[in-house]
Specification:
Tumour Suppressor Smad4, 15 helices, alpha+beta, four-stranded antiparallel sheet
Length: about 475
């Protein structure tokens, strides 16, 4: 017993902080950090894999004079280089955006766009714009005047390619509609891939834009330029030099080009999720703006070579504006009061919204009914409030906890439905309900708009707000 007491006593002796600990000297062995959860590890591992492969292919290229082998090795170098640069850009954007979702979700959009662009699917998607107006391809490529060149490029490049790149984001939008309408359950892949708002839309759009650059530049433009130059000059070295001269600016342009244009489209689609009344105007409007910017870039040389600067600057301003606004909306709805965003985003309490004077809230949906749809947060009201579920009133007080699985009156329907009442950091009269459970909620606000509340997201409380918890559970916030 004495030995055990001595051991326990020794364990209480504080460490000497003047001396480095083992895990401080060998950081990757520390239990206080988790390398596999760091998004930066994606970039680091990518570098560790791509760099040796580039050196290996370079060495093999120097050891052969066979042109077929050189073509194959050069293709590998181009594909790896383009992918690495684009992946680095995407990781940087992801780390800044911090969307509370793993990066592989958005990488699906990248892979899907590469596949669509490099497959016959692209030709099918292009039919309405490239095959319905006679001579439209020639107009876009060779028209001698700016108006004709612009219209041709609007059809064959702008509308065609921005629509093609938007396909993964539109699929995610469709999954969200299915969840809203109760046609599919919000779990598994659906829960991960569906759009929650503008931030998801912008990121999916940007990753899709990167995928299009990958397919168009590495698989089409660079190999074609290589072959054409070799045929014209008879020189392998001249072909490689011309191909690389094309590859570098096409990839560098990414944010001022395909990534930036698709950020606009993704923002419109994502905003349509939380602003469903304007969804078609938002989606088609964003597609139109991105398509016009794309066509202007492709035809700017008809005006003056300096016109490219204007189009590029306008594109990056719009794209960054969409990303910042999407991030600000995500911070506001996620309840973050002091975001670390380099001072570029301001998150303030939402202004009080007045309740509608007409049409009361619809009756509570039952298990077979579609849950309501999604939107941003409403403000809370002063005074005591409660959550009314089938006549059961649960008081909602600051820092209180609700657990519907512990309510016998609900007959076990509340499994997985838990929440915490959180006070606003600066306004004492505003309360929010944070979803701490395992299932998503759908809320209808006092102005008739609606919002999806995922895990760790908040809904601001006020009498007149209603929440569908799933499994036929429907609660209304009422004044006491």
């Amino acid at each position: 017993m004495a030995k055990k007491s001595k051991k326990s006593h020794d364990m209480l002796v504080p460490r000497d902080h003047a001396e480095a600990s083992f895990t401080e000297m060998v950081p990757f062995r520390s239990s206080k950090i988790d390398l596999k959860k760091s998004p930066l590890m994606i970039f680091a591992l990518l570098t560790a894999i791509v760099a040796p492969m580039l050196y290996i292919t370079m060495g093999l290229d120097g050891q052969t004079t066979d042109i077929a082998t050189k073509r194959s090795l050069f293709a590998w170098q181009v594909n790896l280089s383009v992918f690495y640069i684009l992946a680095s850009i995407m990781v940087a954007i992801y780390l800044y955006a911090r969307p509370r979702r793993p990066i592989w979700v958005y990488s699906i959009a990248f892979v899907a766009t590469v596949f669509i662009t490099a497959s016959p699917i692209f030709g099918i998607l292009a039919i309405p714009f490239r095959n319905t107006i006679p001579g439209i391809m020639e107009m876009g490529l060779t028209a001698p005047t700016f108006p004709a060149r612009f219209f041709g490029m609007l059809m064959i490049a702008g509308l065609t390619e921005e629509w093609t790149k938007a396909v993964p984001t539109l699929i995610a939008f469709w999954l969200t509609l299915q969840v809203m309408q109760g046609k599919t359950k919000d779990k598994g892949f659906v829960s991960q891939f569906r759009l929650r708002g503008p931030l998801d839309g912008v990121l999916m759009g940007m990753f899709s834009g990167a995928g299009f650059i990958m397919a168009e530049t590495a698989f089409e433009y660079v190999p074609r330029t290589l072959e054409q130059t070799i045929q014209q000059t008879g020189s392998w070295d001249a072909g490689v030099a011309q191909a690389l001269t094309l590859m570098v600016p096409r990839v560098v342009q990414s944010f001022a080009g395909h990534i930036g244009w698709q950020a606009l489209v993704g923002y419109g689609i994502g905003l349509a999720v939380i602003r469903p009344k304007s969804k078609w105007k938002l989606i088609f409007g964003a597609w139109a703006v991105a398509s016009v910017a794309h066509a202007l870039w492709n035809s700017a040389g008809m005006i003056h070579e300096y016109a490219y600067y204007l189009v590029a600057i306008a594109t990056v301003i719009m794209a960054i504006g969409c990303l910042l606004k999407a991030r600000q909306i995500d911070l506001l709805e996620g309840g973050e009061a002091t975001p670390d965003t380099f001072g570029s985003i301001i998150v303030e309490p939402a202004k009080e919204r007045s309740a509608p004077t007409a049409a009361p809230l619809p009756p509570a949906p039952r298990a077979s009914a579609a849950p309501p749809v999604l939107v941003p947060l409403a403000s809370a009201a002063t005074g005591a409030i409660a959550l009314d579920i089938d006549g059961l009133q649960i008081p909602l007080r600051a820092n209180g906890v609700i657990d519907l699985s512990a309510e016998p009156a609900l007959g076990g329907r509340g499994v997985g439905v838990t929440g915490m009442v959180v006070p606003h950091p600066t306004r004492a009269d505003v309360l929010g309900l944070r979803n701490t459970g395992s299932v998503g909620w759908t809320a209808r606000l006092r102005d008739g708009s609606q919002q999806q509340i995922d895990r760790d997201q908040n809904i601001r409380l006020a009498p007149g707000v209603s929440i569908a918890f799933g499994d036929g559970l429907f609660g209304a916030v009422v004044a006491l």
